[in-house]
Design goal:
13-stranded mixed β-sheet, 26 strands, 26 helices, six-stranded mixed beta barrel, alpha+beta
Length: 816
């Protein structure tokens, strides 16, 4: 029986091979996209779950709230974990991670060519491998970081330093520490779905001296979170038990300093597997966004639906050619149930064929294109190792086959043998209405996705080009990596400024958009002191000039003023002046100069300093966030990063000159630099990645819809061949006939555009809520998307319409 069904299905496919090919291509594209999205979702939704004990691991985070101060830090004070281990005997283990600054490394015995500048390194407790699962390729996890000056490398870094040689026992020189470190282990590279990423772990986290005074613990230390802290609890541990035992600890160690500053501090425990999507802490690793999951998952379902609609459309459109076949099969004894199985079998068989093609498409996309680089993942088509992928791919194919064949399988066999033999379905109004509804649904989805894509790109262009309050173009940043270079900065700056391609230079310890520090100050308001948190910039001479930040009131720093040398002069932005009440914007007679009477000092300062200048607001982070109070302070010693404002002309020659000069002053480090505009572009990389992916998916939505239009246009032209012949005899022109054939589809696309507009508007409004600065929604883009859909649909239909319209009327009139 199955063999008979299979032979009959293959003959049917071959007879209608054009339509079969269109269906297989549509289904294959739908399945391929679904498999890739399944891999993407699996990767994101299993973040950190590769650790064997992930359900027992919690991150300790710190929240602080006080007058003018509120922050939620992903870190905790380094003293917390050892103290908690004494209070909570049920705590199985803990580990702390402390990020390291840029590290210059040299492989012992390999000379100057072995110098590397590394970024993703961290100090960690020796218990790290008791808590987290990191398979060892070399060494023993039990003692890998127990000794001081030990280091564990990832496989990638070990190969970089030592090639195929064994790394265990080899030495690395860390220039900043001026000590040799011994490689005591090599672990597998971390998977990309790990929120805490590193290339090397270095033993030992130092004790902070200020945490103890006269043998007593200083409460303020806990209020200064500085390390990522992870606690390992027993299986099934109830975290409410942790918080129930916390009050005595809080009263003894946290409350004393809180009472001094009228502030509160409390802790949260974040389950490891929830951190990627559910954590809202500051100073954290890059976070996931459920909006991406919903967007990609939703579009994936849409694409599946579109592929299914194509099949249903073609099946119902061509069902008129098969009703007589159904009648004959019924007369010959086929039951309704057998016919249902036959039609479903055809659609499932097509889906299985499409699955095989889809797997090939996925393999090409993942291994022969830069797709993984685009999405910053490492997706692999490992069907035999990934049970979810294997069952998911088969499940998707079967589901598409069943859904696609559902309507024709149940409707067509329901016709009586007499109706079928008469071809009753051929002109059925219900069949025509169904096809029109499906086309409208297809184009509604496709046009809505295209509109969202255009609006997302419009928003990203807006934030890229929005004025930030300073000039980010042609601003070179060079990290200062040596104290000898730091001491020679006045000479270096002067020499660089002598070159025609350099406009101005300065230094700063902070970079807008990358590493803006935060600090709490005491501010004088109405003759009393209150606390206020500021974004903080420590800068050198000519910072405002080099950054091109306008001074709205007061002056810039000047070494001729005593306060500018000893940390008692400050420059603030407009937002700080307003929020502190020094400038009452909107009040009659209020002037920005009023804020120049403001006074403030460092939290532990002993004498108030003065606000000497007020600058225009400028963005120090992405435009997802509103501008916050910002303070600029003259650095006691210039260092950190050299800023150089360059002319736009002859940049390559200018860069060569700077590199030559820099290598003279700093021969021990490779010349590294970045441009500030490029670093700001990084802030929107996730948005651009999302926009690019949705652009690709929207194109696929349109492609599948157009495959359906292509099939329907062929069928329509075929059905109306005789009518077209009559019209040509009566004098109708080819353009008139083409328009006649396109008119019905044009009406459907216009109707779909009207339906798509409010859907797209709602979705993009939700997406734009993540931006503090957003462009107006451009209605013209809605019209553009609709016109584009009409044009593409017209071009698609014209292929068969022109062919039919050009037929000799004699041939057309004989067509049956």
């Amino acid at each position: 029986m199955l063999r008979t069904y299979f032979k009959f299905a293959t003959r049917t496919f071959w007879k209608d091979r054009f339509y079969t090919l269109l269906n297989i291509i549509g289904l294959a594209i739908g399945i391929a996209v679904s498999i890739i999205i399944l891999l993407y979702l699996q990767n994101d939704l299993t973040y950190d779950q590769h650790h064997d004990k992930h359900a027992q691991i919690y991150r300790l985070v710190t929240n602080v709230k006080g007058p003018g101060v509120e922050f939620h830090s992903a870190s905790a004070a380094r003293e917390m974990a050892p103290m908690l281990s004494e209070v909570y005997p049920e705590l199985l283990s803990f580990v702390r991670f402390q990020g390291m600054d840029r590290t210059l490394v040299s492989v012992a015995g390999q000379g100057e060519e072995s110098m590397y500048n590394e970024e993703d390194w961290a100090h960690a407790d020796s218990t790290v491998f008791n808590v987290f699962t990191h398979p060892f390729l070399e060494g023993n996890p039990d003692n890998a970081l127990k000794e001081k000056n030990s280091i564990v490398l990832t496989e990638k870094l070990a190969k970089k330093y030592f090639g195929d040689e064994e790394a265990l026992g080899k030495s690395l020189l860390l220039y900043e520490a001026k000590e040799n470190f011994t490689v005591t282990g090599v672990i597998e590279d971390l998977p990309d779905n790990s929120h805490l990423k590193f290339d090397a772990l270095v033993s030992y986290i130092e004790v902070r001296e200020h945490a103890m005074r006269d043998g007593e613990f200083v409460s303020e230390a806990i209020w200064n979170p500085d390390v990522y802290t992870y606690l390992l609890f027993p299986k099934g541990y109830n975290t409410t038990d942790f918080f129930e035992k916390l009050p005595p600890f809080h009263d003894k160690y946290i409350k004393p300093f809180g009472d001094q500053v009228s502030s509160e501090l409390w802790f949260y425990l974040e389950p490891l597997a929830d951190i990627h999507f559910h954590s809202e802490q500051e100073d954290d690793q890059p976070q996931g966004n459920y909006a991406y999951i919903y967007a990609f998952g939703g579009i994936g379902l849409f694409i599946l639906l579109l592929a299914c609609i194509n099949y249903m459309n073609m099946a119902t459109a061509r069902s008129g050619n098969r009703v007589k076949e159904i009648g004959m099969r019924k007369v010959l004894g086929s039951s309704r149930k057998a016919l249902i199985y036959s039609f479903l079998g055809e659609s499932v068989l097509l889906s299985v064929l499409a699955l095989l093609i889809a797997l090939g498409i996925v393999a090409i996309i993942l291994y022969a294109t830069p797709f993984n680089n685009l999405i910053e993942k490492d997706l692999t088509l490992n069907l035999l190792e990934n049970g979810l992928l294997f069952s998911g791919a088969i499940g998707i194919a079967l589901l598409m086959g069943i859904l696609s064949g559902l309507y024709p399988a149940f409707y067509l066999p329901s016709l009586s043998a007499v109706q079928s033999l008469k071809g009753a379905f051929k002109s059925s109004a219900s069949g025509i209405a169904l096809r029109k509804s499906l086309v409208i649904l297809q184009f509604t989805i496709s046009i809505a996705v295209v509109i969202c894509t255009l609006l997302m790109q419009d928003q990203i262009r807006y934030v890229r080009n929005l004025e930030l309050g300073f000039n980010r173009e042609h601003l070179l940043l060079v990290p200062i990596q040596d104290t000898l270079v730091q001491k020679q900065l006045p000479y270096i700056k002067n020499e660089l400024e002598q070159y025609d391609g350099v406009i101005a230079t300065t230094v700063s310890y902070n970079i807008p958009g990358l590493n803006v520090g935060g600090q709490v100050f005491q501010v004088e308001i109405d003759s009393s002191l209150t606390t206020q948190a500021f974004n903080t910039f420590y800068v050198g001479e000519d910072y405002l000039k080099t950054m091109d930040i306008p001074i709205l009131a007061g002056r810039d720093f000047n070494e001729g003023f005593a306060g500018d040398k000893d940390g008692k002069s400050f420059i603030i932005n407009e937002t700080a002046a307003r929020e502190l009440g020094w400038y009452k914007a909107g009040q009659e007679g209020a002037k920005l100069e009023d804020a120049l009477s403001g006074r403030l000092m460092f939290f532990h300062g002993e004498e108030l300093g003065n606000v000497v200048g007020i600058v225009q607001d400028f963005n120090v982070s992405s435009l997802h966030n509103a501008i916050e109070p910002t303070i600029i302070i003259p650095a006691r010693r210039e260092g950190g990063i050299l800023y150089a404002r360059l002319k736009g002309e002859n940049l390559p020659e200018t860069m060569d000159h700077i590199q030559d000069k820099w290598s003279v002053y700093d021969p021990n480090h490779p010349f590294e630099y970045l441009f500030l505009d490029e670093s700001f572009d990084e802030l929107y990389r996730a948005d651009e990645r999302q926009s690019t992916l949705i652009s690709v998916l929207s194109g696929i939505c349109l492609l599948i819809s157009l495959l359906g239009i292509l099939g329907l246009s062929a069928f329509t032209a075929e059905q109306r061949t005789k009518e077209i012949g009559v019209r040509k005899v009566m004098g109708a022109s080819i353009p008139h006939i083409v328009f006649l054939l396109f008119k019905d589809v044009m009406i459907l696309v216009i109707f779909a555009s009207i339906l798509a507009a409010p859907i797209a508007y709602y979705l993009i409004e939700r997406w734009l809520q993540d931006f503090a600065y957003r462009t107006d929604i451009n209605i013209l883009l809605f019209i553009l998307a609709a016109l584009a859909a009409l044009l593409i649909a017209f071009i698609t239909m014209s292929f068969h319409s022109l062919k039919t319209a050009r037929l000799n009327p004699v041939i057309s009139l004989r067509y049956e």
